[in-house]
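Notebook, bench 3.
Goal today: get a predicted structure for Alpha/Beta hydrolase protein from Immersiella caudata so we can plan the truncation constructs. The sequence was checked against the plasmid map this morning, with no discrepancies at the termini. Length recorded as 466 residues. Pasting the sequence as submitted so the record is complete.
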Amino acid sequence: MSCIVPPARLLSRKAHQIPGQLHVTELLFEVPKNYADPTAGTLKLFGRSVRKHEKPITPLGVKELEALDKLPYLVYLEGGPGFGNREPQDSSLTRYALSRGYQLLFLDYRGTGLSTPINAQHLRTLGGPQAQADYLKLFRADNNVRDLEAVRKFLTADFPEDRKKWSIFGQSFGGFVALSYLSKHPLGLREVFLTGGLAPIRRTAEEVYRATYKKTAERNDAYYRKYPEDIENVRRIVEYLVKNKPPLPGGGLLTAQRFLSFGIGFGAHGGLDSIHSLVLKLITDLDTFGFLTRSSLVATEQHNPLDTNPIYAILHEPIYCFNKGMASNWAAARVGSDLEDFLWTQDENRISKSRPIYFTGEMIYPFHFDTYPELMEMKEAARILAEFDGWDDLYDASVLRRNPIPVYAVSYVDDMYVDHGFARETADLVGAMEVHETNGMYHNAIRAKAGDVLDQLFRLRDDTLD
């Protein structure tokens, strides 16, 4: 359901200069918790707007200063779901965008970063599991889009008419949000940039996971080709964890299932090496002491940090519930239960004895809610959400098909998270879209190979074919 979006209300604005000649303004907004029921309370949204810090030879006049504040906006939409933004000076997009005449906005989605974050302690104050689930339903992409439009209306209220629209840049899940925005509020957009974010807008969660399990298996094969010694090392670690299930310093348990879900990193540049480094650390402990040290247990907690980003676990599968009547019902677990190399996702005692043990990728399972302390408290609410089928529609295919707003996308052929075939289906559907496909980068190339990605995106925009 799409509804009229009122402007956000500004609660505070604080400007700072930070190293690197950046002028950063910290913004705190208030928006409706539920746009369909404005009386239901409010949430806070935190963001940072960024422009170049100007040091002119002569002082700028009032009109010149106002012109700086009214530069056209480019809004960065982070991946996830469930992750807030990094500091602007740490983003590869910042200097590139500023050099092209934009000012940037990094807005933490509701429930993430400094925007009224989701946590178990607060959820307990709302009531039982059903009340908690009802609250969590409000944190999907449809409301992310409404929040963005509300903030746009406030920030550009006194802009010249030709600058009231803004540009958006969606990485990964941010691309899913961007396509929802393009469906629901296209009049607020000037142009759209996507990296690894061509959402499978007509594919069910089951179809998505059948495709991504296949790609995950390929990345496991690549891992064991690069580090063949880890075939035995991983098996020894898994056997130890099945027997011992050591408690982690921050709470929860390091089970074989939790360890084997760290393969999410295989889809990123450097991901194979990162998992090998962890495996080497763990196996060195077992060889030296026969147990895992605090240092190694702390290191494992830094992989797949679901406790600090619980929306990722709770609302990951619902990003594929694009129409009413669709429930996720633990789709990754159901699809994996039919795949020989992933039977352990149902029962850790079903680990293959004759084949290399495969890690899973970007999948969430019920066992995560038995091993992460923050998620343990949300287990029943997560079950309710997995069975829920009343989600609002995320996309309008007819609007996307007729779309006149320029969309520029980089799509990765070897993307482990967003199936390339499904991405191409979306690219073929959306009007006014130009796509660069490459098999030379992985999903996190916006960080690992930022210059290559950004050059290609803006080449799509600036270089005309005719």
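The chain has a mean pLDDT of 94. The CA atoms of residues 92 and 451 lie 8 Å apart.
Flagging this for group meeting.
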